[in-house]
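Would you mind writing out the residues of a protein together with its fold in token form for me to study?
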Amino acid sequence: MFKYDQCNDCGDCFVQCQYADFTREKAVQEIQSLKRGENAAILKQCITCMACNEYCPTGANPYDLILQLHEEKKIHFVEPGVAEFIEETLTSVPNDIIQGDPDKPALNLCVMGHAYPPNMTESKMFAGLTLVRGSDYFSRAVFLHTGMEGKVRTHTQEYIDNLTKLNKQEIIFVHDDCYTMVVRKAPEYGITVPFKAVHIIEYMLGYLKEHNSFIIKLNRRIAYQRPCISRYTPEKEPYVDELFEIIGAERVARKHDRKNALCCAFGLRETDPERGSQILKKNLDDALDYGAEAMVFLCPGCYWLTSEVCEERGLAAIFITDLCRMALSELPFSSRPWEAA
């Protein structure tokens, strides 16, 4: 939610934008124009990476204002029919609950089974957890990238209710979209969340600390593909660093990471292929220039849609759960490690 009373028109949000080229004066004009509900240039230049929320020094959430105006003005960042296809496809995923130890948390796999690495949940890290997947556990946060927040807001109560029916005090979220919906968007919409949301990074870090003697340091240099939606929960960034440190994965100090992270641009690669490809190339060039051996993904969507391009450039594409499994000697260090195992 945009906080009008916290915006001081400083322009930092758009001066720092990596996809628009605004002077300070122009950036100030843009945010003022948005606040008046006008057709500011940023509405068309925005690629929905959400970074301006993190750039804002006062926590006013300018991206939320952009999102609101995208919806009001019907500026959608998908081709006609794509939003309907996403909705129909992901709401038809069958529900499946594999009961685990009643005293252990549930692991929400949402509707991204097609994008996760094969046999991901066979890791000893997830032994005893109740596994949950299917359309009842689809957060719809993907529509925060399309100028259709109404789709998200409309279904949030139902989403929280479905999770609550699991009767778990703690639910672990693999997908950053799902975690953000529970810890940020649901409270913003006035919806009570009666369970504790645990991020997959926090959970795996806790497991690795408890089983430190089983870890064999990877001693690998990796680039981290930070999900756009992580802009809503930057407070977990120290957990990411600690996780990499404990398994011996050096997060290379490249230009486009942390606050300067680039979007994987998968949506843009469909609507504006030239611009999307340029952003992706810039991102991968940066990883290679700083000596990364692999690109490590937290978002299953980024992983699914970017792995092949990484491999073509000589970067192993590794989902973050597999990276931890490698440190536990469950998998070899490799792109598509299940094929090499």
